[in-house]
Amino acid sequence: MQYRKLGRTDINVSTLCLGTMTYGQQNTEADAHAQLDYAIERGINFIDTAELYPVPPQKETQGRTESYIGSWLAARKCRDKVILATKAAGPADWVPYIRNGPQLNLDHMQRALDASLKRLNTDYVDLYQLHWPERQTNYFGKLGYTPKSDNNAIPPEETLRALETLVKSGKVRTIGISNETAWGAMHYVQLSEQLDLPRIVSIQNPYNLLNRTFEIGLAEVAHREQVGLLAYSPLGFGVLTGKYLDGARPEKGRLTLWDRFSRYLNKHGQAATKAYVELARRYELNPTQVALAFVNKQPFLTSNIIGATTLEQLQENIDSIDLELPGELIREINLIHVEYPNPCP
Q1: Is residue 166 part of a domain?
Q2: Is 274 inside a domain boundary?
Q3: Neighbour-count burial of 284, counting CB atoms closer than 10 A to its CB (0-12 exposed, 13-18 middle, 19+ buried)
Q4: 149 within domain boundaries
Q5: 53 tagged catalytic
Q6: Catalytic residue among 23, 53, 68, 188
Q7: How far apart are CA 46 and CA 64, in angstroms?
Q8: CATH number at residue 230
Q9: Which domain range does residue 305 map to?
């Protein structure tokens, strides 16, 4: 395993992070514990979750993912061996069951954190993240920005001061953002510098061969400000494995079970996927591992969040850490990207 610094801290996190959003929906508690055991055995020390999980989000299962991680931590007594990250939900009309509509102010975030800590069976988290912004902006698959009134939104300064309170309480070591824009990331950095508030250490956004929009503005921010990317959906919800090509719908596949991620199955995304899969096979390499290795090598990356529903998939994903992509293969990846630029944002 390889390790990288989390922001400007002295915390070393594994280049591969274990994503857990299937725990409690596609994976049982026993499955979750087996995955966690195997990940730690392979050198992964970074675990990412959220109060919202599992996905798809629903009232009946909300918080179950954290509970499964918490029961594992209690059983293994290994809290000091892992870097644990979770997230507070932002406002959205599709999660009214979370605090009657979550907000990113001190009251909501204190309640969110305390509930997460209870489920996780710990008294602190190493990284506490804002799952999505309070304000109206373009995230969750939106490319274009349309100005909208957000006069009722909690200002970023108030949110950052709330995070400061959580850090000073000892319940949070570092803070991060997720599903953010370049403006949002820089605004948080500037506020921390101007007002002597805690500095964000990471940004968790989608990044994969079908969606490299992070490179356009955020990559430079991540690099120069040392707010490294925690890349989620590095396989485009499994599409880049090739298992959904030519209309295939594997029985337990996420995109077979739920249509909420169908943007990865559009015509151009499928054409690009086919090109990437065929390229990997021409080099006699595993398409899944090529897609992950491409993410692993990015200089603006802190950690690549991998998820799986089986131990076999998890092993395949973790093995990508040892794959060094040939220069000619990377050149051909970039040629495909020119032909199909960001078909699945």
Answers
A1: yes
A2: no
A3: exposed
A4: yes
A5: yes
A6: 53
A7: 19
A8: 3.20.20.100
A9: 3-238+295-323
